[in-house]
Specification:
Strand order of the largest sheet: 1-2
Number of helices: 6
Structural class: mainly alpha
Distance between the termini: 24 Å
Strand content: 5-15%
Number of strands: 2
Order of helices and strands: HEHHEHHH
Radius of gyration: 19 Å
Length: 137
């Protein structure tokens, strides 16, 4: 990542694009909780710091991090890491608390209002489907 930032600086640019020769890289971490809660404490802390740096600065350098876990509560994934992820996806949740943990406070309610609005527009014949991807704040 630091090498990529050096290339950007030498070309007076702020971020990589898909047309750059270096290309974009995607790092996928399955079961993030395993790496943040298992093993030796020093290794967990080092991994957490490196991950925080990669998630916070990696996008501009053309490095995208995708991490999965079954329950991203603050006991499992510290908020100082979890809150850095720009996009979040929650599959079926068993409680509104689980949904709020993943998507942020109140998003479940907003999404249910959006679904009702879509259903109402479908019934009226005024709905035009489009792909929507919500970015977390």
């Amino acid at each position: 990542m630091d090498d990529r930032y050096a290339v950007l600086a030498s070309n007076r640019r702020r971020k990589m694009t898909s047309s750059d020769l270096e290309g974009l890289h995607v790092l996928v971490i399955d079961e993030l909780a395993f790496y943040l809660r298992g093993g030796q404490k020093e290794m967990r802390e080092r991994f957490g710091e490196l991950l925080r740096d990669l998630v916070s600065r990696g996008r501009a350098a053309g490095i995208i991090v995708v991490a999965t876990t079954q329950k991203p509560s603050h006991e499992i994934v510290p908020t100082w890491i979890r809150d850095l992820f720009s996009f979040r996806l929650a599959m079926r949740c068993t409680s509104s608390d689980s949904s709020d943990t993943i998507l942020g406070q109140g998003w479940r309610h907003r999404d249910s209002q959006r679904r009702r609005s879509i259903l109402r527009r479908v019934a009226l014949g005024t709905y035009s489907p489009r792909v929507v991807c919500r970015r977390s704040s």
